[in-house]
Amino acid sequence: MVKDQNKNIAKSEENQGKAGVASGASKIGPSTKFETISERLSPFGGLLGLVKFMDLVKFKEIFDGLYIAPSRKPVLGHYNMVYGLLILLFIGFNRVWHFLFIQFDSMICSIFDVVKLPYVTTYWRYVNSLGINQGKAFLLIMSALRERVWHLCDIEYETIHIDIDPTTTTVYGNQQGSRKCYNPRHRGKKGFRQVLCFIAETREYIFGKFRSGKTLSGEESSQLILELKKHIPRCVKNVILRADSEITCWESVKAAEKEEYQFIFSNDKCKPVFEDSSWYKIRKNDEVEYNECMYQPTGWKKPHRFLIMRIPIEEPKTDGPIQLELLDVPKYKCRIFVTNLTKKPHKCISEYDKRADCENSIGEAQREGISAIPSRKFANNYAYFQMVMLSYNIWRSFKMLAGQGLMEEKSEAQADSQSKGKSFSKAIVDNTIRIARLKLLIIAAKVANSKNTTKVKYSEHDRRTENLFKFYEYLDKLRNKARPWLDSQRWCSKHLQSLNVEQFAFS
Fold first, then answer.
1. What's residue 468's pLDDT?
2. Which 3 state secondary structure label does DSSP give 322?
3. Are the CB atoms for 281 and 289 separated by under 8 Å?
4. Comparing C-alpha atoms, which of 77, 44, 74, 48 is closest to residue 60?
5. Span 78-83, mean pLDDT?
6. How far apart are alpha carbons 363 and 358 in whole angstroms?
7. Mean pLDDT (the chain, rounded)
8. Which residues sit opposite 254 in a β-bridge?
9. What is the spatial distance between Cα 21 and Cα 234, in angstroms, rounded to a whole number?
């Protein structure tokens, strides 16, 4: 007997993608075999982007022209030693002995063309040879790097805000220069009192000092303001300084006026007298009031403009009897500032309040490694501090280039890019360095050699790979172009004269 069958039987569905699921399930048990492979894997696949970036900005050219070499002459050369320390900080390790964890890493060894990195003691002896001169050289290197990145990102700020803020690093032990200083979290313990200056528009570190635990003096604060000028890009015409009350003194004000900077400093050292008839509110229903006056504190050579913002303090509610005041006078919390800005008081204070973002930059810098004290010698710690901030600025440059790539991506108006949701560049720009490191650096990769060619291979199953390649392609696109800081039609960089590099007109 023959049975009729339906001849139009649909074929079973198959996964046509490369990321298809295996046909059979895998089971792992206690007797499962295990073995090793000869391929060298690295968790820091994103270091290829750092190599491209260093070539893009010609970092070796900057280093050879501005670095002041210490007396110690390492076999690998000064550039490779500093480059190795920067890579250590770039990937998130902030202590020299952490080289133990990356000594055989394939990506890092391939960058230096070695099978194994030098021993940790080699790097430590080099750090021990650094001093104040090397720290100042790192500041100049950062200035040159900043100008080149601004050219690459088409940044040409005419006005910038520089936020100055001291921070405290607690130390345990007998480090040279440590003192008992202002340390609200660890009262009575020794520490260092560093001072950091950030550009508010880009959140870059522009200048700072690794200091002993003493309170910042007027002479030091004035010297700090005077030294800012040689690190400010040449395209900037106006500078607005913002700082807390520790900076406020006649020496700081005099230095700011000498350099023709605008400034607004918080004040808690003097109490100017404000006229009662001059108080005003922005809106009728507001409780906050503002006022201003010209006042000359004791020791100052001339009067300056002081602003005040007073906020009523609400009386705490208690269930028991209330102690009445002799006079029914309202209580206020007052914020006083000294400035040479000409805006209305509430607008000046509103501009000062934007300085609060500086605390986030300091927090990031502390996590990047300024809290790590590698040596008992003050000069070594000074140089290492500036090296940490150089690594911090490199990450900032990565984020700025990613933002520039995002803008070009939007300008091209690609249909497929709009359908893929949040782009890779957007994720880097919006997040902190710690999150950007997870998206841009901590990506598994394998260094493979075939036919005398070295390749870095990434997993096609990682969702970040496709976007990472787009970022690499953008860096390669910039590398293939003429360097914009050499264009005589653009603003001239300060560092070109130090490097004996001439500009020319691009055709």
1. 87
2. coil
3. yes
4. 77
5. 96
6. 9
7. 87
8. none
9. 57
User: Which residue reads 């000359």 in tokens?
Assistant: 296
Residues 120, 81, 457, CA angle at the centre, nearest 5°? 85
- Find the helix or strand (DSSP H, E) in which 180 lies: strand 179-180
Residue with tokens 């994103």: 46
Contact present, 180 and 189 (Cβ < 8 Å): yes
**The predicted structure's pLDDT at residue 19:** 52
pTM of the model: 0.88
Q: What is the pLDDT of residue 220?
A: 93
Burial class of residue 471, CB neighbours in 10 A (0-12, 13-18, 19+): buried
Structure tokens at 228: 């800012």
What SS3 class is residue 97?
Answer: helix
Token duo for residue 220: 């030091």
- Are the CB atoms for 166 and 243 separated by under 8 Å? no
The DSSP secondary structure of 445-483, one letter per residue, reads EEEEEETTEEEEEE-TT-THHHHHHHHHHHHHHHHTSPP
Summarize pLDDT for 133-158 with one digit per residue, the tens: 999 999 999 999 999 999 999 999 99
Q: How many CB atoms lie within 10 A of CB 79?
A: 15
Residues 6+ apart with CB under 8 A from 298: 270
